[in-house]
Each structure stands twice: as structure tokens, then as C-alpha cells.
Design a protein that fits this description.
This protein is mainly alpha-helical. It is 68% helix and 0% strand. The longest helix is centred in the middle third of the chain and has 25 residues. It is globular and about 55 Å long. 39% of the residues are buried.
Length: 272
């Protein structure tokens, strides 16, 4: 039987990415399991991936678009808000599931060795299925409102990758912390709700006063949402002053999350 020795990380090689690739079939299995479990014994099944952002968009359109008259940069408010809800829903769902994934998977962690990173990664990546289903509705909405796709549509995968990196970076921190401190489960709903209002999902980023723009851009989800709108809706200048700082913060979150996760990984089986 092959023995696996777990050592403290040393440099970049210690992040365990090559080892994670050797277990890529396990990652695929965990993603598929998460997707199946999510809609098991539900009447509508995967249709919830479409209904949740769509119904949220309808509510926002009534209260923020019609009653509050919130600016939507000249686009129909339903499309404006839905484009923001897609990446936010992916981020929120991924972080929520991944934060408790190690505790929920304690039966695996305590019995067999595999890269623990596979568990939060699968929880975040499984949200790509929901994103794809909900994206189909956006195409239909753009056709209905006669909004032509932007020539910058090529940038959509890049901003989806930015959303994935942000969600994974936050998830690595929270999932590792949650093993030792179950307070994370109580803190997370408040954290995500506050983060939602600090992200331009229901309002245009240009409503933020100029004096606070630099600080506002440090929210990586600001860059994701604004980038998605730039890539999908067109007729908008590239918001580099919001996107570039967001990319930098997302990179810091991801790298630091990987290091912290790998540093504490060897204690998971004892603590969880």
C-alpha cells in the first residue's frame, strides 16, 4: 500500500496544486455529487437555478427600478439587475456551500487521505452549472428587450474566472476557519448580506461618490459585476479604475487562502 506523508508547506511547491490535479477525477465526482444532492427530492429540480435569480430580478425591478427609480445606465432595469445577479448568485452560493463543506465532509476527511482542497473547490465549481442555466434566461431577456450583445463579449469568461477566483479565495479562508471556529456559520449570512449591498448589483457603480471609488474598487465583486456588464451590455467604457484593483484583491485572497488552507490542512482530521 502506498504511503502518503503530509508535510508543512514550503514555498509555491507546497500549495499542492499538482497533487490536486492527480485527484482531478475525485474533484469531478464531488462536483457531480453536489449538483445531484442540491436538487434531489425537489419538485422543480434544476429549474430552481433559473427561478431564484429570475424571481429576485422581478422583485428588484419592482422596488428599485419602478418605485425607487434607480439608475440603470440607460438599459432596461430587469436586464441591468439580472446581469449583476448572475455573478453575485454564483459567488454567494459557492461561498455559502464551501464554508461548511469541510465540516459536512468530516466522514471523508477522517477516514481517507485526499487533497482536502478538493472539497471547497468542488462546492464552488458546482455553481457553474447553475450559472450556465441562468445565463440562458439572460439571452432570452436580451432578445425580448432587443439589447444587442456587446462586442466585448469575449471578456465574459475572464470575468467569470475572476468571480470563481474570488469565491474560491474567500471559501478557502472560511472553510478552514470553520473547522476550528463554528462562529463562521453565524457570521456568514451577515457578511454576505453586507457584501451584497457593497456590490453594484441593484445600482450603478457611478452612483458611488468619487471620493470613495478607490476604496469601493477594493471589493473584488465590484470588478466582477462591472466587468460582466461591460462584456454583456456594451456602450460602456471599460471601467479599469474599478476592475484592476478588484483583480489585485482577488489574487491576494486566492493566494493567501491557498497558503492558509494548506498550512492548517494537516489538523483538519483531528479538529473536525
Amino acid at each position: 500500500m502506498e504511503r502518503v506523508r503530509i508535510r508543512p508547506i514550503r514555498g509555491w511547491a507546497g500549495l499542492g496544486l499538482s497533487e490536486l490535479w492527480r485527484f482531478h477525477e475525485l474533484v469531478y465526482f464531488l462536483i457531480w455529487r453536489d449538483v445531484r444532492v442540491r436538487y434531489k427530492q425537489t419538485l422543480l429540480g434544476a429549474a430552481w437555478a433559473i427561478l431564484q435569480p429570475f424571481l429576485t430580478m422581478v422583485i428588484f425591478s419592482i422596488f428599485f427600478g419602478e418605485l425607487a427609480g434607480m439608475s440603470s445606465d440607460g438599459f432596461p432595469y430587469p436586464i441591468f439587475s439580472y446581469v449583476g445577479l448572475l455573478p453575485w448568485g454564483f459567488f454567494e452560493s459557492g461561498v455559502t456551500k464551501a464554508a461548511g463543506s469541510l465540516v459536512a465532509g468530516r466522514h471523508l476527511i477522517t477516514k481517507v487521505y485526499f487533497p482536502r482542497l478538493a472539497i471547497p473547490l468542488a462546492s464552488v465549481a458546482s455553481g457553474l452549472v447553475d450559472f450556465g442555466l441562468a445565463f440562458v434566461v439572460l439571452i432570452g431577456m436580451m432578445a425580448y428587450y432587443r439589447v444587442a450583445p456587446s462586442p466585448a463579449l469575449w471578456g465574459l469568461p475572464l470575468f467569470l474566472l475572476l468571480a470563481l477566483s474570488t469565491a474560491l479565495g474567500v471559501s478557502l479562508w472560511l472553510s478552514a476557519l470553520n473547522v476550528s471556529y463554528r462562529d463562521i456559520g453565524y457570521l456568514l449570512p451577515f457578511l454576505l448580506r453586507a457584501w451584497f449591498f457593497l456590490t453594484p448589483v441593484t445600482y450603478a457603480a457611478n452612483l458611488v461618490p468619487e471620493a470613495y471609488r478607490s476604496l469601493y474598487a477594493l471589493n473584488p465583486m465590484t470588478g466582477v459585476v462591472e466587468g460582466m456588464r461591460w462584456a454583456m451590455l456594451g456602450d460602456r467604457p471599460f471601467p479599469s479604475e474599478l476592475i484592476l484593483p478588484s483583480v489585485a484583491v482577488a489574487a491576494v485572497l486566492l493566494v493567501s487562502g491557498l497558503i492558509y488552507f494548506r498550512t492548517t490542512e494537516r489538523t483538519f482530521a483531528d479538529v473536525v
